[in-house]
Input
Amino acid sequence: MSDTPKTLASPTRGNLVSLASVVVFFTTWELAYQAGLVNPVFFSAPSRIIQAAAEVLESGVLQQDLSITLTAYGISILIAGLTGITLGLTTGASEIAYRVFNPFIVSLNALPKIVLMPMVLLWFGLGLSAKVFLGALMAGFPIIVNVQSGVRNLERDHIMLARSFGASKKVIFQSIVLPSLIPYLLAGLRVGMTYAMVGVLIVEFFASSAGIGYRMVLTTQNFQIDAFFVLLLVVIAIILACTSLVRLAEKHFGRWRPVSL
Output
């Protein structure tokens, strides 16, 4: 008889459990609405959300707003990634750079970014630039911190061993440094993707005339609660899709990481 405990380690079984929990949640929600336990003025229901989704798609408003938001979101992630990798590598590899810049990185990372909204609007106005700046600012810090940690936690023994065998810097980077850093980078990117969307939506909530965030505010002001939930689910779907892709990359590249000596 095996001593191995029974778990939900099987991917298929785990996925079925997750799917069942989602089905139970939405079924319970719909039943609560049908029983009159949900106030339709302030809340919605799955059946009403499906109906509203068809109306929103037919109007063409969602496609236009989605294009605007995704443009700002994509640029934010790109800038955050490039900046985060650069600063993370610099502060991780250089002790002097770490001592100089890390206090500012820690302080700005701890700062609630929403308090910068007045200055962001003063600097960038109401257009795309404000969304990109705040989105990149919020997404950049998880990437910086993770890449920095990856560099500072490199297995020095592996590098010294490779050097002792005459490995070139290029070989060391490709076979030791890069495989060790990629898991850290992807972990930071996964968190940063969520923060980037938050930053973009914050600007659209308060200072925009287009985009998903603007449309969400407009629907609540007009008591179009069903349409609001459609937009909310769209935002959730975007973030889940992006972070799921990064998780797949993490599983793939996680195999690269050298085993500790």
